[in-house]
């Protein structure tokens, strides 16, 4: 079997099953595990999968640049953002992450909502400029341009002084075993700090992020109080998360 054929079959299996094991692939293809591992390394270098111990997981396309992410699932993100916005009650304090789905969330907030939004995303803060009834707190730090959020020690220190009712988390990967993940180490640290300071964490997850993984783990799947997905997401996709005790909300 040609290398290109093996790689196609590996990607087909990832799309179907969400993960592959090097030993099983070695048996299926009749080649050594070293050969399979080389295939996995090359596919990982192309950004087509995320290697883990013993095999690989599907890679999330949500690690693309900001312009690229805006083009992925825009209708689904708008629906998820609209549903998330309805979860914020008057008087509550909510952490709102950065990213394209978070932008949709704040765009759907009622103009007369009286609440407090805490964000480390300058883009989210700008979207709220006309919401005079909202208290908007912007967390400072080093600007991570890929996601247009602040990261670093200054951001984490500031978050340590705030307690929120809700945290709306953006991720690039949601996987039962690999947990909640993102493509940048410092961003993962900030998200972890946000989880620790919120009573409930709601993960905003359009379909391309489900059963996918990125390099840096934020937390296990049990850190999520709920995962908000698009309404037509198959139950077979969400069932593993529900089996882990996470509530699935549909937009």
From TrEMBL:
Does DNA-binding appear among the keywords?
yes
Ranges for domain HTH deoR-type: 3-58
Signal peptide (from-to): none
Output this protein's name. Transcriptional regulator, DeoR family
| Natural source organism | Paraburkholderia phymatum (strain DSM 17167 / CIP 108236 / LMG 21445 / STM815) (Burkholderia phymatum)
InterPro entries to which the protein is assigned, alphabetical? Carb_Metab_HTH_regulators, DeoR-like_C, DeoR_HTH, NagB/RpiA_transferase-like, Tscrpt_reg_HTH_DeoR_CS, WH-like_DNA-bd_sf, WH_DNA-bd_sf
User: Which Gene3D superfamilies does this one have?
Assistant: 3.40.50.1360, Winged helix-like DNA-binding domain superfamily/Winged helix DNA-binding domain
- Alphabetized UniProt keyword annotations: DNA-binding, Repressor, Transcription, Transcription regulation
Matching entries from SUPFAM superfamilies are given as: NagB/RpiA/CoA transferase-like (SSF100950), Winged helix' DNA-binding domain (SSF46785)
Single Gene Ontology MF annotation: DNA binding
């Amino acid at each position: 079997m040609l290398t290109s054929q093996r790689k196609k079959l590996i990607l087909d299996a990832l799309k179907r099953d969400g993960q592959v094991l090097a030993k099983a692939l070695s048996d299926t293809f009749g080649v050594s595990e070293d050969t399979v591992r080389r295939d996995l390394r090359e596919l990982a270098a192309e950004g087509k999968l995320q290697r883990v111990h013993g095999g690989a997981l599907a890679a999330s396309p949500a690690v693309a640049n900001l312009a690229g992410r805006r083009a992925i699932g825009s209708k689904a993100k708008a629906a998820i953002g609209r549903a998330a916005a309805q979860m914020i009650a008057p008087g509550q304090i909510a952490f709102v992450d950065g990213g394209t789905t978070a932008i949709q969330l704040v765009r759907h907030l009622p103009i007369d909502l009286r609440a407090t939004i805490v964000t480390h995303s300058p883009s989210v803060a700008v979207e709220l400029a006309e919401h005079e009834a909202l208290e908007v707190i912007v967390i400072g730090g080093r600007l991570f341009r890929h996601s247009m959020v602040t990261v670093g020690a200054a951001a984490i220190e500031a978050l340590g002084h705030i307690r929120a009712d809700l945290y709306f988390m953006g991720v690039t990967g949601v996987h039962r075993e690999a947990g909640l993940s993102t493509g940048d180490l410092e961003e993962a640290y900030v998200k972890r700090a946000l989880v620790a300071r919120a009573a409930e964490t709601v993960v905003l997850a359009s379909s391309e992020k489900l059963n996918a993984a990125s390099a840096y783990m934020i937390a296990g799947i049990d850190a999520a109080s709920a995962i908000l997905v698009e309404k037509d997401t198959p139950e077979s996709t969400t069932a593993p998360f529900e089996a882990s005790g996470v509530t699935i909300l549909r937009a």
